[in-house]
Amino acid sequence: MPLVIISGQRGGAGATTVVSNLAASLQNAGEQTLSIDLHPDNQLCLHFGVSQESVSGWAQAIATGADWKQCAFQASDGRRILPFGELAPYQFKRFREVLMSSIKSIADTFAVRQDEWVLIDMPVDRQQALSDNLISECYQAIYELADFSFYVAHPDLGTYRLLKQAALNGETLGDKQLYLLNEVDTNSALSLDIELLLKAEFAAQVLPASIHRDTAVPEAAAYMTAVNTYMPSSQASSDYHSLALWCLGRLGEDAENA
Amino acid sequence: MPKVVDISELNSAELIPVMRRYYASRMLAFRGLKPFRLAGFIVVPLWLSLCFVFLKPTIAGVESWKLPLVYFPHINFSRPRVSDLFRFLIQLCWVIVVRQSPPARTRIGVDGGEQPSDEPLTLLWRFISKCKALLFANVLTRSMSRYIQQLESQSTSTSKTPSKKPVFLTALARTIVGVLLVILALMSFTVPLTVEDQFIFVSLLFLLAYALNRVPGHLPLMLMVGISLLVSGRYVWWRCTSTLNFDDPIGLVFGIGLLMAEAYAWLVMLLGYVQNIRPLHRGTVALPADSREWPSVDIMIPSYNEDLSVVRATVYACLGLDWPKEKLHIHILDDGKRDSFKDFAAEVGVGYIRRPTNNHAKAGNINYALAQTSGEYVAIFDCDHIPTRVFLQISMGWFLKDPKLALIQTPHHFFSPDPFERNLSNFRKVPNEGGLFYGLIQDGNDLWNSTFFCGSCAILRRGPLEEVGGIAVETVTEDAHTSLRLHRRGYHSAYLRAPLSAGLATETLSAHIGQRIRWARGMAQILRTDNPLFGPGLKWQQRLCYLNAMLHFLSGIPRLIFLTAPLAFLIFHAYVIYAPAMVLVLYVLPHILHSSITNSRMQGKYRYSFWGEVYEVVLSWYIARPTTVALFAPKKGSFNVTAKGGLVENSYYDWVISKPYMLLVLANFIGLGFGLYRYFNGPENEIGAVIVNMTWTLYNVLIIGSAVAVASEMKQVRRVHRVDTNIPAKVRLNSGHLIQATVMDFSLEGLRVAVQDMSRLPRGQFDIDIILMRANREFTFPMRSVYTLDNAMGLHLKPLSTEQMTDFVQCTFARADTWVKWQDSYDYDRPMASMAAVFRAAVYGYRRLFALAPRPFPDIARWLVRRFKYLSSFSPRKALPRAEQL
């Protein structure tokens, strides 16, 4: 089944929020989802209502020799999550050692997973966030399996410059790598204009569905749930629904059959 | 903290709570508005228990306990009455005997072959479809259908290649064939037949036409037109030669009157066939890629007494037109000499032209402005017609392609209901009065290069316009007269059947009638002063198209004759048609039937059967006099402006305007009374004539009833006209929440918005932003709430800049997608369904008439309605499970 990697184009772009809400919208559309947190900060589980005190997660499991398959949670709306887990500094060393050997088996497990969408919350910049080449290389293996990877970005000048620069340098993204514009601010003409510009100029690389800036999104996170549960009438909820429909159209069963 | 929960199974030990749940939830579904009666308390649990014990969970796709709700929708089982027993039995028989899901009809395929449907059929349906198949899918009709389609595909494929024969030969051949055809037609019109022969003849023709009606394509339609002409020709010949009784002076006078009216109707039918035989669906022509080559355009917005708010929307929409700014000059032509208009023009930066005099009304106004401006093209918009931004880009291409083209007309589309639609509540359900003209007739005219100028939503080339002396001022329909003059000079015209602009329809019936009176009088004036049949420069087809347009407005007197003709016999016992009833039926019925089915096929989407009569009847009385006066004294009368954007203060019955209809109603009812008397007391040999005339009178009563319904005006209280719509939008609260919403209606001053979750909104008055989308762009408009209801809120626009106002109009009035479906959204005409709709309208009309009549009538009407409702409550219903019952 589909495997989608979601990472921020830079820190704070909202990738973790996107994972949680996209999972909720897919779930709402009748799909089973499993979100996996690859981020040592272990933030994603908060969006799923997992208690702050909980320390269990796949990384914690492999570091302590436990079975990582036992660490998944299911939220009340049916979304499943595999947290990273809290690693004490001494455990981190152990984690590094076993990661190389276990990541392969973990990835293989996901690759053959049937009737489940796997959404992966990938740390932003792998070198810096983990300050560890080894881990980032391990994570790199997961990119091979992905059907799509979304880069979450704000529609601002920085994003435009980055894309433009990449285009000028002749760097091309694969056709499975797409930018997702998050926090489009209807209050700011600049934000709207850049969104328009990005969609026009980099049509092949920017997702047609973008997410508006909506206070309901952080509020939903504070309530430890997704925005379509917290406030179904909000625009963000509708945006995520559109995004989920796009994903289903591209990767869903019907699309595969066609 | 989420965790995996084991969903516990039903605990079988707790039987009583389970049963209680079972009954309580299902009893609730049976409960109506009022609580259960004792009988209901017995009946419903009894059924539920039976159901629980004996029936399987679902039957025919419905949960079995819901079966009574689905199949007996008109019986309230919670409060059964004794009479419900009969309803139950009647419905039970009905459900058992008659198929409830939509009938699986035998389809006759395109090639005439029978397409078996996969659904099983009941005995009755099987019999009907067998009959149908025998009639229309036999070897004969199938081969005919195939042959016709072959012919058509051949002719369309060969017509592309130019004919190699010399021109004079084809012309000669055409003339010979034409003369032969006319001789043959005259022969078949005049050959006398016995009653039996005529019966066989018309039956065969009818079957042929009915079979042809099932064959798609253009050729079958032309053949149907031919058959219709043949049958009608025979009828007219028969009427002229053998139905006038020269021994009975009264009968003769009435008879000749009716004959004239029928001749008129026949002529209009004939011209209509010519006009609409092959509508030209003109496409668009691309403009050059370089916008520097685009010509300059003057946009003229004439106004006389309309409100500034009406004009503002149009001006903002014109400012948003996609055209190079330096080549687009907008002018408000203010004949009302109002300073508020001048100030507004200066504020938004458009031209303002005011003339010293007021002569020749709108035509004079435009002519004065023509002298003040210099653009190569002149686009004219009535101040209440709002163009979409693409208007110029889509329509201007033809001018650059065809240098002789002088006029492009686009449809007048209305986003508010006209009085007919409003008073009958059938807005966007039945094509309106203009639907036929702008959907079909203008497109038909376009084939013959005789598109009429309709005064607004059109572009004219300045050169030719000035050559004919500007807009014609001699008649009150300056528009059609102007295009007539352009055509006389050999210029071309074009019609683009795309709703590129939209406007307000007239508000009240009296205003609507006033407008039609003006058109009717103007057309009659042109007929007298500049008759299109004579004079230089026109082709015969153009002459016929113009003639038909003008004759159309002379329909007043003939229509009144049709409405009263049967009364001559019923009341005065004068034989207007001096012929045995049987023979009359054999001649007149085919004439009516063929013209109906042919017109129904021709006009399908643009005018439903019988509605044309309703429209005509409403106007007939009022246009009868002015057209007659204008025919004899074309110079008399004055110009009356169509007032729009007005208010109907109360829901009122327009007694003044419906007076003539009431007279007609009265006369027809008296006629029916006389008819009944004659039926029972008259001589034996008259009964046929009585029945025929009473049927006719009943039909007239029906049509007049619909006209009466139109005259009952509905309330309309807002100052600024609001347009009902359904556009998705977002609202942003000050807290930063974005909420999905739907715009329900809009005006230039504000919106009414339905928000999904009203509980999120603040209380009282608050500021809010509305975000509207157009072409994937989002525009934010600051608003202030005026009122908040449970499901919607009213918002008022805060002061906006000109640029923002232009955006607002682009997002609301001038967005093309709100009416882009337009005429294509109408279904094809179904004559019987249309008849039923007219019938309902007539019942509505009479009910209103009685309700508003003096004292004893409303009570009688109410009593009648109650009786009727009680009786009809026994009639069986169509029982189909609704979505929520599945």
Automatic annotation (TrEMBL), chain A:
Pfam families, alphabetized: CBP_BcsQ
InterPro entries xrefs: Cellulose_synthase_operon_BcsQ, DNA_Partitioning_ATPase
Top-level taxonomic group: Bacteria
Protein name: Cellulose synthase operon protein YhjQ
Organism of origin: Zhongshania aquimaris
Classification lineage: Bacteria, Pseudomonadati, Pseudomonadota, Gammaproteobacteria, Cellvibrionales
Recorded name of the encoding gene: yhjQ
UniProtKB/TrEMBL annotation, chain B:
Catalytic activity, EC: 2.4.1.12
Catalytic activities: [(1->4)-beta-D-glucosyl](n) + UDP-alpha-D-glucose = [(1->4)-beta-D-glucosyl](n+1) + UDP + H(+)
A molecular-function term among this protein's GO annotations: cellulose synthase (UDP-forming) activity
Record InterPro entries: Cell_synth_A, Glyco_trans_2-like, Glycosyltr_2/OpgH_subfam, PilZ_domain
Keywords: c-di-GMP, Cell inner membrane, Cell membrane, Cellulose biosynthesis, Glycosyltransferase, Membrane, Transferase, Transmembrane, Transmembrane helix
Source domain of life: Bacteria
Domain spans labelled PilZ: 716-813
Subcellular locations according to the entry: Cell inner membrane
Cofactor(s), names only, from the UniProt record: Mg(2+)
Pfam families in UniProt: Glycos_transf_2 (PF00535), PilZ (PF07238)
Segments crossing the lipid bilayer: 36-55, 167-189, 195-212, 219-238, 250-274, 549-569, 575-593, 661-681, 687-712
Domain named Glycosyltransferase 2-like: residues: 299-468
Membrane topology designation: Multi-pass membrane protein
Pathway listed: Glycan metabolism; bacterial cellulose biosynthesis
Assigned protein family: Belongs to the glycosyltransferase 2 family.
Biological role stated in the UniProt entry: Catalytic subunit of cellulose synthase. It polymerizes uridine 5'-diphosphate glucose to cellulose.
Name of protein: Cellulose synthase catalytic subunit [UDP-forming]
Organism: Zhongshania aquimaris
Biological classification of the source: Bacteria, Pseudomonadati, Pseudomonadota, Gammaproteobacteria, Cellvibrionales
